[in-house]
Amino acid sequence: MFPGLPPARRRLRAARHQLRRRRRLIAAALTAAAALAALRTLAPPPAETVEVLVAARDLPSGSLLEEDDLVVRDWPVDLAPPDALPDAGVGAAGRVLAAPIGRGEVLTGVRLVGPGLALAHPGETVVPVRLPDAGMAALLHAGDEVDLLATDPGTGEAVLVARDVTVLATPTGVPEGPAGGSGGALVVVGASADEAVTIAGAALTQFLTVSWNR
């Protein structure tokens, strides 16, 4: 390796060469370890998460939720909606969706028919309305604004009972055709307190139907 040098000198020179190589390797390893430690120090801590319920598939308005419609996901606390339903679900299974929800979307209280839906529409009273023809209910979508008409089953006379009420939830999977009595289909609307009283009274003795004015 070092021709022309005495054996002792060659061994010494070789030892020094190996030592310098090892020192460089050790220095490189220490530098890499220091850089990795610095990156770990500078990296932000893991984001705090909370368990929420999200839709396992696209679900239409009016769906009756089942357990396999929802899955639990860890969600960043800063991004979770304030009314997101927790892992416990607050009895989400068996509840009715007031609005459609897409796969992976967080389920919130305002998406369900119930008190949370009323809070999402301040100033309005949430009223269930039974339409005698389920096919009529199938034409409606959440967000529609419609007029409610009451028709006397004896005379056939129709009167306007509420104007520009907002459709909040519609049913799915109901058979079409007139049923009357306890049949038909339920929709949920938002109306003023006075309109809610009028609608409830008319529903006892008359058939309620809807019309669009625009």
Describe this structure in words.
The model is unreliable at 177-182 (pLDDT under 50). The longest helix is centred in the N-terminal third of the chain and has 36 residues, at 7-42. The chain has helices at residues 7-42, 115-119, 134-138, 193-205; strands at residues 49-55, 70-76, 125-131, 145-151, 158-169, 185-191, 207-211. The protein folds into three domains: 1-43; 49-116, Alpha-Beta Complex (Type Iii Antifreeze Protein Isoform Hplc 12); 124-211, no CATH class. It is built from four helices and seven strands, in the order H-E-E-H-E-H-E-E-E-H-E. A hairpin with a 6-residue loop joins strand 4 (145-151) and strand 5. The chain is of the alpha+beta class and 214 residues long.
Q: Compute the number of helices.
A: 4
Q: What portion of residues belong to β-strands?
A: 15-25%
Helix content: 25-40%
Number of domains: 3
What order do the helices and strands follow? HEEHEHEEEHE
Mean pLDDT: 75
Shape: rod-shaped
Poorly predicted sequence stretches spanning 5 or more consecutive residues:
177-182
Radius of gyration: 34 Å
